[in-house]
Amino acid sequence: MRARVAPVGSSALKLSAKQDLPGGWEAGGFAQKLAYVYARKMDVINRGLGGYNSEWGIPAFEQMFTKDKTGTHPKCKLLTIWFGANDACLPFSNQHVPLDKYQQNLTWMVQALRTPSSEYYAPWTRIILLTPPPIQVDAWAQHIAERDPPKDMDRTWENTKAYADAAKEVARELRVPVVDAWDAIWKAAGEETLGLTRFLSDGLHLTREGYEVVYNELIKVIEKEYPELHYDKLPLILPAWDTVDPKNPRASVVSHYVDV
Amino acid sequence: MRARVAPVGSSALKLSAKQDLPGGWEAGGFAQKLAYVYARKMDVINRGLGGYNSEWGIPAFEQMFTKDKTGTHPKCKLLTIWFGANDACLPFSNQHVPLDKYQQNLTWMVQALRTPSSEYYAPWTRIILLTPPPIQVDAWAQHIAERDPPKDMDRTWENTKAYADAAKEVARELRVPVVDAWDAIWKAAGEETLGLTRFLSDGLHLTREGYEVVYNELIKVIEKEYPELHYDKLPLILPAWDTVDPKNPRASVVSHYVDV
């Protein structure tokens, strides 16, 4: 199978419009933007799990990276890990994960792929951590108050910030490249709560513009840390049509085999 | 690996904006729209090969469906085959494929998956053929005249129509469901050349509105012919977050295993 880039994570990859679907596959979403630039180079397999925290992410992760019957791993070249937005819920919430446990969970995921004795060992998989984006407290409070039944406010700005910092700490300790979505969005918002409106649809989930900011940061990190995986560096699968030899198309198509 | 829906074909899956990339992965494109509705149900693996005809499509097809070292096929649940727009080029063009050869090629692809003795035999793969969309001759003539160097006009309305009819004939003979993109777009255009402007960007490639028309037809065909593969009928991979048991998350995530 073709090499993959797999975004794995929580609601940051979720659809903004339809709350029941996971994603980033909407027009302008994170997965769509990646699939566009990696078209015919790497397949984007989106494993965004809306509402998940890093604790629930671990058994999900295990299933995603389990070897098949032949002992072959899914061939994931680039993995982005993006949990934290739900971990950062306040302790009364079912989604809450304590800060140190959140860090342990991220560490577990990275080490699962990096440790030779791990059954998920995959030294060919390049990893990038993402921090949760900031939240716009008033918008989110209003959003969950309008639910039926209404829910208590379950997040604070400061708490999400603490989880973003914690993710960066893990990245630093494990020497994993990090996309600081929190910082990028907060700066784009002019470091003002009201400025967040353009980037967050309901105070929590990203808008098109929010995805754009995070996507741009991700591409910058790929270019700097894993330049060989930048989309401009990867070969096209199968030859471009105007390089096919019309007199001997089979030979020229086959000669260009790069793992479809 | 997760079951796939794989659109395979030529420039009809290509990007409209960037001529050098294949796709349908643009916002509003064919692959993006499918990935959105099949999110967390089936992965969309886009094998649109811009500029390809059905003749060049065969060695590409063989590579896509070759068994791996263990004898396992790629697990493709739904395959759409969409060639013809380039086959229908006039005979002087390198992309031209004679009408009867075009029909043989489509037949070969379908039979490769359906014939038990075929090395590509995959009885679990549901197949849908698509006809090439109509072309807007004046717009395409202008488009290729503006190239550097300018190219001779290589397509006619009638010829593309003949290839669309030929694809339908193959579908009828082999009893493969067909999405008549030609007819759907032509009807949406009020059966008038000028009406095509909304649906074709350069006289040949689909706009967002063009993709919308074809996508809607495809979903109708799936619903009628392969209802078990309609996105509403497929289970979500991994449980929805609000059904995870917070007291025993691992057990409840694992219990819901459906092949990630």
From TrEMBL, chains A, B:
Alphabetical list of SUPFAM superfamilies matching this protein: SGNH hydrolase (SSF52266)
Superkingdom assignment: Eukaryota
Gene3D superfamilies in alphabetical order: SGNH hydrolase (3.40.50.1110)
One Pfam family hit: Lipase_GDSL_2
Domain SGNH hydrolase-type esterase: 25-213
Alphabetized InterPro entries for the sequence: Iah1-like, SGNH_hydro, SGNH_hydro_sf
Cross-referenced PANTHER family: ISOAMYL ACETATE-HYDROLYZING ESTERASE 1, ISOAMYL ACETATE-HYDROLYZING ESTERASE 1 HOMOLOG
Protein name: SGNH hydrolase-type esterase domain-containing protein
